[in-house]
Amino acid sequence: MDRMSSLFACLVVILCLVSSAKAQLKPYYYENICPKALSTIQKIVYEAVSQEPRMGASLLRLHFHDCFVNGCDASVLLDDTPTFTGEKNAAPNQNSLRGFEVVDRIKDALNSECKDNVVSCADILAVAARDSVVALGGPKYKVLLGRRDSLTASQAAANNSIPAPTFNFTRLLSNFKSHGLSLRDLVVLSGGHTLGFSRCTNFRSRLYNETSTLETSLAASLKSNCPINGGDNNLSPLDPASPLSFDSDYFEGLIQKKGLLHSDQELFKGDGSGADGLVKYYSSNPVAFWHDFGSSMEKMGKLGPLTGTQGEIRINCRKIN
C-alpha cells in the first residue's frame, strides 16, 4: 500500500471512530440504567435556580466552557493535581466559573438514587444546562446522553479554545468553525447571553473606548458600577432588559447598541454585514430562536464525547477515580 493510500485508510478509520462515538449518544441512555436520573438532576437544578436565579446562567456556561475544551468530557470540573493543571484557573474561568457545588449535589444524589456510579459528570453538565434554560423560561430541547468523563484536563487548552470577550467577529467565527460550528450556531449560542452577568473587567475597555457602539444611557449606568479603576468583580447584566429570563431580548439589545461585551456587539454592526441578518431575524422571531438554540446546543453537546470504554465515570466530579 502506498503512502497516500495509507493516509486515506487512516482517515477513514478516524472518521468512523468519531461517527461511532457520536452515534452512541442517545436521549434515553439512562432509561433502564437509572430511570430517575433525569428527574433527579432536574429537581436539584430547579431548587438551585429558585434559590439564586443567576445560577441558571452559571450552569449553562459550565457546559459551554466544558465542550469548547477538548470536547464535552467534564474536564472543566477537575481540580488541579500534581500531574496536570486543570481548567478552573484558566483565564476565561478564574474567579468566574461557578456552580461546582450544585454539580456536586447532583452527583451525590444520583449515586444514591441509582444505587451505583452510573451517570457521568459530562452528562450532568449537559442536562443541568438544559434544565437551567427551562427553569428560566426557555425551551426544553433534546439532550443526547452517554458521555463519559475525561482522565485529565488542560489549562493551556482552555486558554486557547474558549472565545474571549475581546474577540472581533472574524475571530469569533473562526473559533466556532474550528469546533465544527457554523455562523448560525455562533449567533444562536451567543443568545445564551440573554441570561447572566459579566464582571467589570470583561467590559471595561469597551465601556470607556467604544462609545460610538454603546448606547449612551446604558454607558452612563454601567460607568456608575464599573469605574476606570477598581471594581473588577462588579457585575452587570449581559442582557439589560431581562437577565433572568430566557428570551430574545438579547438580540434586540444588540440592535440598540446595548451589547455588554465587545464580542456581543460584534455580532451586529448595523451595516448588513457578518451576523446582522441573523440578529435581526432572531430579535423578531423568538420561537425560531428557541428552536435553533436547542438544535445548536445538541450540536455543541456532540463535540468530542468520550463513549464506550473511553475515559471513566467519575465518582466525584472534581477528581479522577
Automatic annotation (TrEMBL):
Pfam families in UniProt: peroxidase (PF00141)
Record-linked PROSITE patterns: PEROXIDASE_1, PEROXIDASE_2, PEROXIDASE_4
Chain segments annotated as coiled-coil in the UniProt record: none
Listed GO biological process terms: hydrogen peroxide catabolic process; response to oxidative stress
Annotated site residues (Transition state stabilizer) in this chain: 61
Domain of life assignment: Eukaryota
GO CC aspect terms: extracellular region
UniProt binding sites for heme b: 193
Keywords (A to Z) from UniProt: Calcium, Disulfide bond, Glycoprotein, Heme, Hydrogen peroxide, Iron, Metal-binding, Oxidoreductase, Peroxidase, Pyrrolidone carboxylic acid, Secreted, Signal
Cofactor, free-text remark: Binds 1 heme b (iron(II)-protoporphyrin IX) group per subunit.
Residues engaged in binding substrate: 163
Ranges where the Plant heme peroxidase family profile domain occurs: 24-321
Required co-factors: heme b; Ca(2+)
Signal peptide: 1-23
Keyword Oxidoreductase annotated: yes
Annotated positions binding Ca(2+) 1: 66, 69, 71, 73, 75, 87
Localization in the cell: Secreted
EC number: 1.11.1.7
GO function terms (MF aspect): heme binding; lactoperoxidase activity; metal ion binding
Residues at the catalytic site: 65 (proton acceptor)
Enzyme class: oxidoreductase
Disulfide partners: 34-114, 67-72, 121-317, 200-226
Protein family according to the UniProt entry: Belongs to the peroxidase family. Ascorbate peroxidase subfamily. Belongs to the peroxidase family. Classical plant (class III) peroxidase subfamily.
PANTHER family tied to this protein: PEROXIDASE, PEROXIDASE 72-RELATED
Known role: Removal of H(2)O(2), oxidation of toxic reductants, biosynthesis and degradation of lignin, suberization, auxin catabolism, response to environmental stresses such as wounding, pathogen attack and oxidative stress.
The protein, known as: Peroxidase
